[in-house]
C-alpha cells in the first residue's frame, strides 16, 4: 500500500465532508434526505480501499503509466462507478437495442456527487472553481430532473458565495 495514495484518499474524504457540511449548513440539503446523505458522506469512496481498486489507482496516479497500468485502472474505474451511486455513470442504463437512458438520481446521491466534485475546490481553496469544472463537463448523461437539481444547487452555491464575497 502506498502511503501517498492512502493519504490522498483520507484528504479527499475529508474535503468531501467539508463540502457536504457547507451545503448542509447553508440549507441546501433537503431535510427529507439529510440523514441518509450524511451516512453516504461518511462512507464515501470506501471502495477505493478494496483490492479491485486500490492497487490500480495507486499505480495509475503514483507510478509509471504503462499500457497494463492503464488497462487495470480502467477496470478499477468501472468497478468504482458501478458500486458508488454518487457517480452519474451509475445511473446510465445501456439498453441492448435502444439508446442509453439516464435514470433519475435520488437526491441524497446528487448531494454526495456535488460534494465529491466540490471537494477539489476545497483542496485548492478556490470554492468557485466547481463552476468552470461543471461547464467543461456538462456533457455528462443526466436525467433532466437530476440536471435541474444539480444546476439549481450550483446556482444557490454561487449566489451564497457571491453574497459572502460582497459582505467582506
Q: Which labels suit this protein?
A:
7 helices; mainly alpha; 168 residues
Q: What's the gyration radius in Å?
A: 17 Å
Taken together, the total number of domains comes to 1
The string of secondary-structure elements, in order, is HHHHEEHHH
Low-confidence stretches: none
* Helix run count: 7
How much strand?
under 5%
Strand order of the largest sheet: 1-2
First-last Cα distance: 44 Å
- How would you state the average pLDDT, rounded? 96
Structural class: mainly alpha
Question: What's the count of strands?
Answer: 2
Largest sheet: 2 strands, antiparallel
**What overall form do the CA principal axes indicate?**
globular
Summarize the structure.
This protein is mainly α. It is built from 7 helices and 2 strands.
Would you write up a description of this structure?
- The protein is mostly helical and 168 residues long.
- It has one domain (3-45, 84-167).
- It has seven helices and two strands, in the order ααααββααα.
- Strands 1-2 form a two-stranded antiparallel sheet.
- A hairpin with a 7-residue loop joins strand 1 (92-93) and strand 2.
- Helix 1 (3-25) packs antiparallel against helix 2 (34-42) and helix 3 packs across helix 4.
- It is globular.
What is the element layout, followed by pairings?
Blueprint: H1 3-25, H2 34-42, H3 54-62, H4 67-83, E1 92-93, E2 101-102, H5 107-124, H6 129-136, H7 144-167
Antiparallel strand pairs: 1-2
Helix pairs in contact: 1-2, 1-5, 2-5, 3-4, 5-7
